[in-house]
Each structure stands twice: as C-alpha cells, then as structure tokens.
Design goal:
By secondary structure, this protein is α/β, with parallel strands linked by helices. It is built from eleven helices and 15 strands. Strands 3, 4, 5, 6, 7, 14 and 15 form a seven-stranded mixed β-sheet that branches. It has a six-stranded parallel β-sheet with strand order 10-9-8-11-12-13, sandwiched between helices. α3 packs across α4.
C-alpha cells in the first residue's frame, strides 16, 4: 500500500483526502502505463491547486490522484529506455488530470512521458523547479529563439512572485538581462530584487484596459497572467520584440488589437508545457541544471508534506503563496 492524495466527486459532492491505496488500485487505474516510479517529491502548481480545491474542470476522470509533476526512482519498467533504479522526472502529459498523478508515494506512468533526471539535480531540487520552473525555461528559450539578447533592452516578467515568475527572474538575471518584475504584492519587492529583478512595478500599471499601442519599452516579456496584463504588455513591446505567454492567472481573455503585431512586428509566442515535445523538454531540463543558480531555487522554495498540500491549494489560488512549493510525499 502507499500514501496518496485522492480526489472523489459524486453528483454535487467533492472530497480531497489523504488515504492509503493499494497497488492493485493503481494498476487498475493506469492499465496503459509501462513504468512504475517510487515518487520522492512532487509539487503544487496553479493547476494542481485548481484540482485540489475543485475550482476548475482540471480533473477529467474520477476518482483521481492529483499531481502533474513527480520525481523519483523507477521500481519496474517495460519501457526500453528505462530500467529499475533510473532517476526520472515527470511533467504534464495529462497526469493528475486524466491519468493518476504524483501527489503519492507511487505512480504508474508511460515511459514516453519521462525525462531522465540530470546528474546534478536530485528529486527535491527537480520538484522545487517543477512545471513552473520548466515552463519558465521554455519561455526563456522562446525569447532566445527569436533572437532576444540582453543588449536589446529590458525584459518584463508578470506574475513575478509566483512560481513561473520567480524562476524566470532568476534565469534571466543570471543570463545577463535587465529584468523588471510586475507584482501585486508590494511586500515581495525585496524578495524579487534578491532573485535578480532590477526594478519592481505594481501590477496595477498593466491590469486595467489600455491603449492598443503604448510607449515602447520591453525587448521581451514573459507573461503568466493573461487578460489586460498581456494586452498591455504587447502594446509596450519594442519593435520586433517577443512576448512568451504561458498562463492565465488574470483571465483567459485577451482584450487586444492587432496593432502591436502588424505595426511593430511583435511576436506573441504561446508556451505549452503539458504536451511539449520531448526534445524541448530535455533541452529545458539540461539548461535548468546549468543556468539556474541552486541557491536561488532554494531561496524561492518551501517544502511541505501531503497534508500541507491540501491546505495550501486555496492560498495559492488567492495569490498568497510565494515562489515554489515542493511536496515530500513521505511526510
């Protein structure tokens, strides 16, 4: 048997509890899996918080073990790329949504979903980074592929005190960019500067409706907020600048015009971490192992147990959780 968080729904009723599950239950729920992993650490991302609090239709199949991220050791494998003892990372692929996830001591997963853990990253650090940090790296890669370099000017990071924003700031600053952090939490300014932000601005400057074209400022943007924030960011991007959009914490709408795109040649790049091709996943994790200062990831990370994950979900949705939360599934 193994410990897990367990989500159930019946009619209008919903429950999220910690309970013991059997290997037979796990096998029955994941018949298409070919790798069994002893999970050491998982994490809570915004999507996990939505599932744990039943605030959005994240879960597609019931009952569900949540957890879109996991890191641990292969116990058994029928997949040609993995063998018992291999250390692996899982991000996305519908795990924790339509396939039992990793907020548990054991998971059965498809080998095609797994990334070999880089040699200098352990399970705790991998989940301190998690999907949020891996998404931040994908956003940085999107800017780089469009030719954005530090000499071109400032990079705006929205939702800066959250998981994606925190890692994005640390990565960009270490790569030599001047980073401006946008946040609604003025009390986090010192934290954001410690990560490498050169300037901290109030999110209110971006969150209200604005003009279709505004004064050019940003060479690039990493946006985890959406809605008016993303529209205003696009309107302020310099000629042929790039915006990497990866989140919707402020809303799914985009009240913008085509003006920035057809008059300034701005590129809006969507960054998806869930179904991202394996080649990009491997590159992102290789870059995270080398480009992300371990001291910075420690600065932004809180480690909790399974019970705490249930408690923290509503706080994360309310914007009260700073940085990253790694979950020790054995606590």
């Amino acid at each position: 048997m193994f410990d897990a968080l367990y989500l159930e729904k019946s009619g209008d009723g919903f429950s999220a509890t910690r309970r013991l599950l059997t290997d037979d239950q796990l096998a029955a729920a994941t018949p298409d899996a070919d790798v069994t992993v002893r999970i050491e650490y998982s994490t809570i991302n915004f999507k996990d918080a939505l599932a744990l609090a039943n605030r959005s239709p994240v879960v597609r199949r019931w009952p569900m073990v949540p957890g879109i991220d996991g890191a641990g050791v292969v116990e058994s494998s029928a997949h040609p790329r993995f063998a018992a003892g291999d250390r692996v990372i899982l991000n996305g692929w519908g795990v924790g949504e339509s396939h039992w996830g990793c907020l548990a001591q054991r998971a059965r997963l498809k080998g095609d979903w797994l990334v070999a853990m880089p040699a200098d990253i352990d399970a705790r650090r991998a989940m301190a980074i998690g999907t949020a940090g891996y998404t931040a790296m994908l956003c940085v890669m999107a800017l780089e592929r469009r030719g954005v370099v530090p000499a071109q000017g400032e990079i705006l990071v929205t939702g800066a005190a959250g998981g994606v924003g925190s890692v994005a700031i640390a990565l960009l600053a270490r790569l030599g960019f001047r980073v401006v952090a946008s946040t609604g939490r003025a009390n986090e300014a010192d934290y954001l500067r410690a990560l490498g932000a050169a300037e901290v601005i109030d999110r209110a400057a971006l969150s209200a409706p604005g003009k279709p074209l505004q004064k050019e400022r940003w060479a690039g943007v990493i946006d985890a907020v959406g809605s008016h924030t993303l529209a205003n960011a696009c309107a302020q991007v310099r000629y042929r600048g790039t915006v990497a959009a990866c989140g919707l914490a402020g809303g799914m709408d985009l009240p913008a015009t085509v003006a920035p795109f057809i008059l300034r040649g701005v590129a809006l790049i969507g960054v998806d971490s869930v179904m991202c091709p394996m080649e990009d996943r491997r590159e992102a994790w290789k870059r995270l192992a080398g480009d992300l200062d371990p001291a910075q990831i420690e600065r932004i990370t809180t480690v909790v147990g399974l019970d705490d994950a249930l408690r923290l979900a509503p706080e994360m949705l309310a914007g009260k959780v700073r940085g990253r939360v790694a979950v020790d599934v054995n606590r």
